[in-house]
Amino acid sequence: MLFPSLADELKDLEAAGLRRHRRVLESPQGARIVVDGREYLSFCSNDYLGLANHPALIAAAQSAAARYGVGVGASHLVNGHSVLHHELEVALAAFTGLPSALFFSTGYMANLGIVTALAGRDDEIFADKLNHASLNDAALLSRARFTRYPHLDLVVLEKRLAASRSKRKLVVTDAVFSMDGDIAPVPELLALCERHDALLVLDDAHGFGVLGDKGRGVLEHFGLLSRCLPPHSSPLTPHLIYMATLGKAAGVFGAFVAGPVELTDYLVQRARSYIYTTATPPLLSAALAASLKLIDEETWRRERLRELIASLRQSLKLQRWRLMDSTTPIQPVIIGSNQEALAVSEVLRERGIWVPAIRPPTVPKGEARLRISLSAAHTIEDVAHLAAALNELESAA
Ligand code: PMP
Questions:
Q1: For atom 13 of ligand 1, which residue has the closest CA?
Q2: For 339-372, what is each residue's pLDDT tens digit?
Q3: Is the pTM of this model over 0.90?
Q4: Strand partners, 201
Q5: For residue range 24-38, what is the model confidence (pLDDT) as tens digits?
Q6: Which atom in ligand 1 lies closest to the alpha carbon of residue 246?
Q7: What's the 244 CA to ligand 1 centre distance in angstroms?
Q8: Within 6 Å (CB) of ligand 1, which residues are found?
Q9: What are the chain's domains?
Q10: Contacts of 194 (CB under 8 A, 6+ apart)
Q11: What ipTM was reported for this prediction?
Q12: What's the rounded Cα separation, in Å, for the pair 111 and 93?
């Protein structure tokens, strides 16, 4: 009997502190959220710039809905490719300074589409051990040889690249690691890929909008944009594929890949998660176009984030728990055991502060943690309140 065995498995998950629960959010995303009628100070969302509930984005979505309706009812290659999708792709290419951009429904689907279009049975994919699940799933689906290297260990990666006899080699990595908040050494990775004629697929889900003075993401952070950019006479580095998501700092939904026109044209032909799915509601593209403008113009949002990050790191005085070494809005506190991480998250919730406990398999065993994410919507006082609560809970534990 299937269902009783599923129920047993659920009980085991519960007993191990690994069962995950959804909560029903009754408010927009923001520094304060409402769940079960109660307001909480929230440190759970990836709405890093505080744009998810911005009036300009809402107005753009509303007027697009009034003009174009709420659904396109077809995939991009049938007749679902709206003028608003088209305009967003043009805006994304201009924003990143890369020649061409292709808009995907989600980051998960973009990673599946990119990796399976570019790698097959004769190829090999090299992946950082801490990559996002979507990159791992993409590698498995591609049927390419799948080689994972220890987190950020470029010595091991180089050995494996050198030993590989596969036809095409793809190195895939998060640019900012989603559960640790650290940044991949992109210049070194790129140099390695150039030496070994491998493609570097960068997933900048958590860097886009946040890193770099202009929010262009990890390439701007490392001063690499000029290597990928026009003037069109200078060749693009042919080894880099840039991907980012639009449901985090951009505050809406979706993802894109940017690079040479040949790449985006090819993906339109071959990326199955682009081809075989209904195009997203065009109103999302309208909201995203408004978001790109704010990411560009409102630099204070990134400045505020930097102040909040510094303030949190200065105020936390932890002895037994460990604040990870991160300069991004993802500030994890390692607690260790699943049950203790859950218990701390629960006590914080009772005090009106929402911080998620992240447990295996999302993070390695024994490294359950609180994943604090900061947003430009927070104030210095919000962060001070969280730090005081954590300092007190740790000393009482
Ligand atoms: N890549 C990374 C690094 C992510 O953190 C996420 C989202 N958690 C994704 C991809 C998937 O993006 P989306 O939520 O748009 O599917």
A1: 107
A2: 999 999 999 999 999 999 999 989 999 999 999 9
A3: yes
A4: 172, 241
A5: 999 999 999 999 999
A6: 15
A7: 8
A8: 106-108, 111, 132, 134, 174, 178, 203, 205, 245, 247, 255
A9: 2-49+299-396 (3.90.1150.10), 55-297 (3.40.640.10)
A10: 237, 239
A11: 0.99
A12: 18
